[in-house]
Amino acid sequence: MSRADRAEGASTFRPPSVDRMANWPALAPLIERAGRPLVVEALRAWAEARRGMADVADETACARWCTARLSSLVTPSQRRVFNLTGTVLHTNLGRALLAEEAIEAAVTAMRSPTTLEYDLSGGARGDRDDHISPWLRRLTGAEAATAVNNNAAAVLLVLNALAAGREVIVSRGELIEIGGAFRIPDIMARAGCRLVEVGTTNRTHLKDYAAAIGPDTAAIMKVHPSNYAIEGFTKSVPAAELVALAREKGLPLIEDLGSGTLADLETWGLPHEPTAREAIEAGIDVVTFSGDKLLGGPQAGLVVGRKDLIERIARNPMKRALRLDKVRLAALEATLRLYADPGRLAERLPTIRSLARPAEDIRAQAERLLPTLRKALGSAAEAGIEPVRGQIGSGALPVDLLASFALAMRGKGLDGLADAFRRLPIPVIGRIADDTLYFDLRTLDDEAAFVAQLDQLDVVAG
Ligand SMILES: *Cc1c(COP(=O)(O)O)cnc(C)c1O
Fold first, then answer.
1. Structural domains in the chain?
2. Where are the beta strands (DSSP E) in 261-398?
3. pTM (whole model) above 0.90
4. What's the pLDDT tens digit per position in 347-367?
5. Ligand 1 centre and the CA of 394: distance in Å?
6. Ligand 1 proximal residues by C-beta, below 6 Å
């Protein structure tokens, strides 16, 4: 060893090797959670960041640093939250919550091989649609049914199967855009159809449809306006009149119901929303609607209607690209089964349960929660109970608001307060309006979990 080396060796700290650090007891819990490779990666970064410093060997500081660095990798990206926005079917928060029966069916299908496309009686190949189409036929009165990934896929598939290379007539007042870049004209183009717009934004007459029919017309389409309503001097053509015209011309009449529902919402004191059965009874040939909106099931696009048309739709090669997997089919079948007993839906289906909750029940819950909330807030904000109006969401009944009660918070730094609630172990998502943070309690079912984490709220006193 030269003199220079000795001098270096005396003054420079030699850090432990990354492999040795990985055996430090302080790192054991992180290795258990994240696995050794990720921890070794974090340790390299730690050693690099503290190069030449003696405290690289501080086990506790190192474990804390590595835990923070890996936190985004060890916490799931898609997490459970409390949806207290007042929108029951919130698309950004995952829409419908499944019934326990549907969850159980999905879990079983995830764990085990199933009869997805297998006919037990003959030991031969079956059709995956056979699990849900008998239920859909029974619940809508349609001759046949199929299902795909979501309603957008259903519309795409139906248009492609019935009208590719030809014209489809739609009223201008129904050329809607719903969230996530679903625009009827774009879907129409991607399906390979030519859109023929008739009427004006506010008024479309039967004669407008009639005048647009030509040798290239393949279908007439109706679209539920979902997320908006036109008021005032308006006119749209009732299904019955369109049915007569379509029949006379031998054209299929398609309707995109959007949310659609299989139950009469008036049973629970809610405003009327068109049911799939009504559309079929009115004579619509093919009806599409969503599985995870008012129906309260998994994401899916349901297609019901005339047997010959559904057969063409199910034979289209796009069906293979858009089909449902066994897990969602299991959940969908279990959800549809619940509709056989409408009297118990409000008890078993979370979507209906939330929508049917009486305002007084919600107010009582708000009163139960207020003292605990006030304690958690300290002097950071004032809290009270206020009547609010929520909505169904996902395009159902946009103008009808659900009378509800909310915990209402006011104070300086409202955004910071909302942020503190989002940093809780189960993030709480509310709605800010009029300088107030509202937690609409209509959709708070797990009250115990909400209360249990309030003492962890990290707010600055105002
Ligand atoms: C919601 C909606 C769709 C899209 O349904 P997804 O299931 O989200 O794909 C299509 N059309 C209308 C009218 C809708 O309201």
1. 3-74 (no CATH), 82-91+354-456 (3.90.1150.180), 100-348 (3.40.640.10)
2. 286-290, 301-305, 382-390
3. yes
4. 999 999 999 999 999 999 999
5. 8
6. 150-152, 178, 182, 223-224, 226, 256, 258-259, 290, 301, 394-395
Q: Are 252 and 213 in contact (CB under 8 A)?
A: no
* Nearest to 144, CA basis, from 296, 311, 260, 264: 311
What's the residue count for the chain? 462
Spatial distance between the Cα atoms of 417 and 293, rounded to a whole number of angstroms: 31
Average pLDDT, the chain: 92
Sign of CA dihedral 362, 438, 396, 445: negative
Q: What are phi and psi of 223, to 5 degrees?
A: -125, 130
Element (H, E) at 326: helix 326-338
Q: Ligand 1 centre and the CA of 289: distance in Å?
A: 7
CB 155, CB 206: distance < 8 Å: no
- Ligand 1, pocket-test mutation among 95, 151, 175, 223, most atoms within 8 A of CB: 151
The Cα–Cα gap between 124 and 1 comes to 80
